[in-house]
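Peroxidase (Lithospermum erythrorhizon), 334 aa
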Amino acid sequence: MVQSKSIVLLLSLLAFVPFCMSHKIKGGGGGYLYPQFYDKSCPKAQEIVKSVVAKAVSRDPRMAASLLRLHFHDCFVKGCDASILLDNAGNIISEKGSNPNRNSARGFEVIDEIKSALEQVCPQTVSCADVMALSARDSTVIAGGPSWVVPLGRRDARGASLSGSNQNIPAPNNTFQTIFTKFNLKGLDIVDLVALSGSHTIGFSRCTSFKQRLYNQTGNGKPDFTLDQSYAAQLRSRCPKSGGDQNLFTLDYVSPFKFDNSYFKNLLAFKGLLNSDEVLVTKNQESLQLVKQYAQNNQLFFQQFAKSMVKMGNISPLTGFRGEIRKNCRMINS
């Protein structure tokens, strides 16, 4: 009887092992990412991040999109290692000066605020890279989007890559094939591309990012005729042919601060702001079908967005003994 009970217990434990391991993702340097990484070393870590992000977004609703974007722009360069947060210093040339980030990337002071709060509670324990991953999730939830379990245990880079930032981050004017290739090189597929593009359901873009669509799409002095012309006329009123480059426009004119699937509905109405948005419905049949599915089913979009965010957050993380845990996210430890 005792022996049979022991066998049942053993089988139960063995059945539980795959469940525990399923949340573990192998990183570089012999370590793993897993959600419980800080449960003992800094149990209040996630609570602190969430609190600071909530206050920041309440002060500035645009911050939700900015923190989400910051995580994207970090992961596409050298992996999710907080290299985007480093300032110019010594041999480090900051990624903040790259074309995708200059006068555009924001939210650095919020990351500083989170890191400062964490350092008071558990010094040099929580990485800046993990702060960014958690901030992206919390920002999405605060804006009304889905939640997901964030694997943790990333470490911070001791260098940046300005050239990588200029070359690897998808640009608003890129062709569909160029964008797809940039995603593919990071291990992301077409489903990830379309779902993650849905992050443009919140946030703003500058006039300079889409001006060519209004006046000179293919270099022949003519606008992009795939853009709804009444919508184009509205855009031209505040995005003139000359000047106004820094003027801000909502990426999703229907619900700019609400994380939902209206972005996909806009694309089907040919009212996607950026060229990189509209090519999802004009240049590829598979991406068009995905746009239609997400436009019809908000829950399906939320489910896939959460999966794709976890996948993106696992791009080439530094773990184990690689990298470091920065005391200050803007500079490497001395």
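The first helix runs from residue 2 to 21. The domain at 33-169 is CATH 1.10.520.10 (Peroxidase; domain 1). ok done for today
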